[in-house]
Amino acid sequence: KLQFLYFIGKMTSWKVHVDDIDMEKEEVEEEVVEVDPLLLLLQKRFEYTSEHKQFEDKDKIQKDILAEIEQHDMAPYYQFLYESFMWPIDEVKMKKMKENNEKKMKELEDKLADAEENYGETEVREIIIEQANYMARIGDRAECLKFNKKALETGKVGLGPKLDLAFQRIRLGFAFNDPTLIQEGIDAAHELLLVEGDWERRNRLKVYEGVYLLSKRQFKKSAELLLEALSAFSSGELVQYKNFILYTTLTAVVTLDRQGLKKKVLSSSEVLQVFPELPNLKKCIHSLYDCKYHEFFDSLSAVCEEMLCHVYTALHVNYFYREMRLLAFKQFLQSYRSVTLQSMAESFCIPIELLDHQLSIFIASGRLSCKVDKVSGSVETAQTNSRSFQYQKFLKEGDILLNRVQRLARVAEK
Question: How many helices (H) and strands (E) does the chain have?
């Protein structure tokens, strides 16, 4: 009997433990942060202007954008789209949205007046931030910035709220393609973090700055920042986690050496967890790292197609394609002093003519240390170390600069 009671007690304890785990799971699920609606609309605007075959149904994209605008009374954003795309404005809907905007702002102004009369500076600032958030939600960039600035000037603002307001300005910069506003927000956040430390927001800033540098094609610095934030991603309001892994991997593969790629990407639990959702990227990187060159170009083309579907990467597809080809050719040629074009073309599963053309471009630009012998149909590699290559490049550029200075001097004398 005692054993039976002990068993029942154990079962009850186990059930309570399971219930606690389920509650913890629910709490974790509730903490998922949605991407800023303005950034989702930025992607939709990109899809509307993109010529990619995946976005051929422009009418559907336009309807999706207009449905979002009408659902959330985004009258200022409606006007912005009219100015951007010359979409016709439905005056009845515009009037209704403006009325709802005015009604909501009147409620917030009354709430603010009550707080100013009955509460302290903290409560007043919270309502001003609420006004700024509402203006951001309806796409009124100018008014959002006005309330953002007003919140910073209201009372003694702590580090956390200051950084959150800086992040809001950065997101506005992304949403309205304003690099000056993005850079101002990033600089302000860096200045604040020099004074005090905030680990969570410091990691968020790395993601914000990393994505911005990616959009500017500064892949090396972008990769450094995104990799540093990999284990503690908390910027769901800027970018989805899957896309964050995509951007991190894209920037890392063209800037890291083999050891760094293996350690920071291919052995990363965060990357491996998402790789099943990115099969083309996984295949491309593994085909390069594992020297499976016959799979490389097909998987690379698939990755480039995927890059064309993202607003932050679409403009850099040609650059990425070129750098990945260069990496693959360098890696292949490291094992040879001489190899036939036929053998190399068969390894990459591409025509000899195409291989010859691509190699010639890299050789002519000084980025590949080898020679193509058309008579024997072979590629002869020049085994030079990176320091020697940089020295030769420095001498060549120095000669060019001196020639230009001499020409300018002759012109000035005349």
Answer: 20, 3
